[in-house]
Amino acid sequence: MNVTLKKTAIQKTRIPESNVFFVRELHDRHFDATWHAHMEYQLFLVLEGTGTKFVGNTVKPFDSGDLTFLGPNIPHLWRSDECYFDPCSEKNSRGLVIYFNATALSPLIDKEEFAQLKLLLEKVRRGMELYGKTAQTTIQLMVELVHLHGLESIIQLFRILDLLSKSKEYRLLHDDPVYYQLKDVETNRINTVYNYAARRFKHKITLEEVSSLLNMTPTSFSRYFTMKTSKSFSYFLTELRIRHACKLLATEEARSIAQICYESGFNTLSNFNKQFKTFVGMTPTEYRQKFMTL
């Protein structure tokens, strides 16, 4: 069963008509906070910064070194943590992104020599996270690519794609391909909800509160959000809080589990433990121990 998304995502394109692909360095206080989609494949590396990434129906934290490969028309948003939006903060976000369009490769893609690449491009329609030695080598190749031009740059791009096509060090973000269907009549509603939730998830958020952002009744909003994201708003909010807790458990050894529970937006430790076990498959203590033994 394919994951079909009909929510609003601003359509963007990044490749000049004169190019086969485009590589871009990102350097700003925070990443673009707009839920969007585009026709190009995208390989995105976070060099500096932390936050939450929304890819299709998946919600996950990101940190420096996060490397994600997306197929065309998968709506996505790398939402920097709230501290990056503070005018007084000295924090910065840096990234490196490669865009390419499969149409440029279409005369070759069905040839025998490109069989592995064709399989890779099908996989990334589900969204792909890369890790291990594959990620380390890919990051090095991407950094080098910035300084290459002409045929050398094309050869480097194919080195990257060849490496990824042969690797088993990846996680797919969805069980099925994600297809985004643009509806001109839609607005930026989901974008509004995602950004609001990312800012406020540490506090109590009521249905009345969030539905008022879209000028809807709580009942209408609940129905709308579930239809557009395939999950209830309460599930989405819990997921957002759990992903934040995972990040703290893995990186903040000095904080107690109780502190992490309340900082992640949960009211009671018992509910936090229950929800964490449901979403992650282990207790917060077991999750923390897993990282302490690495």
Write a brief structural summary.
The protein is α+β, with helices and mostly antiparallel strands and 294 residues long. It has helices at 106-109, 115-123, 132-145, 150-166, 189-200, 207-213, 218-229, 233-251, 257-263, 269-280, 284-292; strands at residues 3-5, 10-11, 21-28, 36-37, 41-48, 51-55, 58-62, 67-70, 76-80, 93-100, 128-130, 170-172, 178-180. A six-stranded antiparallel β-sheet has the order 3-10-5-8-11-12, covered by helices on one side.
Could you please describe the fold and organization of this structure?
The chain is an alpha+beta fold. The protein folds into 2 domains: 3-179, Jelly Rolls, CATH 2.60.120.810; 201-292, Arc Repressor Mutant, subunit A. The protein contains 11 helices and 13 strands. The strands form 4 sheets. The protein has a 6-stranded antiparallel β-sheet with strand order 3-10-5-8-11-12, with helices on one face. It has a 3-stranded antiparallel β-sheet with strand order 7-6-9, with helices on one face. Helix 2 packs across helix 4 (150-166), helix 3 (132-145) packs antiparallel against helix 4 (150-166) and helix 6 (207-213) packs across helix 7 (218-229). It is globular. The model is unreliable at 1-11 (pLDDT under 50).
